[in-house]
Specification:
202 residues
């Protein structure tokens, strides 16, 4: 009887080994330093993603402005149908054509600069001057575009009261493209203003 008791006791696992395995499988609680470090890393990553989104959105908006300004220029430049239906007979249409050319030149330079900055990580214009160039340039060009649209709209509406033909339709299309270019540059100016004010607090 004593031998059977000894054999049963020999088959049971030692309690000390079970306690050691349980303690080893329990993860240690995260310290305050680790939590703060994880939060800081997440904040930095989200900030980088936001800055990258801002950079790309500026490129997209200026690219759209370039496209719309180019369309406005091409439509108005080809709006010649003989007689009174020649765009160069009207100061308002010559004005919108000239502003569309300026918008094309400005946005093309800005798009090339944005692409160079994204590919190389370096800006052609040093900071903080580049932020002022973006903010002032976008605002001035947006103002010129909306002023050109404001000048050409009354003339076009007056013509369409008397006659509605290809000349007036093309004039309206050119004005619409110029307005779309203004909208894109106005939004780009808001983003440029955000980057400028943010730079002032760094």
């Amino acid at each position: 009887m004593a031998n059977s008791g000894d054999e049963t006791a020999g088959k049971l696992p030692p309690l000390s080994e079970k306690g050691t395995e349980s303690e080893a499988s329990t993860p240690a609680p995260a310290t305050d330093t680790e939590i703060r470090g994880s939060t800081a890393v997440s904040s930095i990553l989200s900030r980088w993603e936001r800055e990258d989104l801002i950079k790309r959105s500026g490129l997209v908006l200026r690219g759209l402005a370039l496209l719309f300004a180019l369309l406005s220029f091409l439509i108005m430049a080809t709006n010649q149908h003989g007689g009174w239906m020649e765009f160069d007979h009207y100061d308002e249409y010559r004005y919108i054509l000239g502003i569309a050319i300026l918008a094309c030149l400005y946005t093309a330079c800005q798009v090339a600069r944005d692409i160079h900055r994204l590919l190389t990580g370096k800006d052609i214009i040093t900071r903080p001057s580049s932020f002022y160039v973006d903010f002032v340039g976008d605002q001035v060009m947006a103002y010129l575009l909306i002023s050109a649209c404001s000048a050409a709209i009354p003339l076009t509406n007056s013509m369409r009261k008397n006659v509605d033909n290809l000349f007036t339709d093309m004039s309206s299309a050119s004005i619409s493209m110029a307005f779309f270019a203004f909208t894109a540059l106005a939004i780009s100016a808001l983003i440029s203003g955000y980057k400028l004010t943010r730079q002032a607090y760094i």
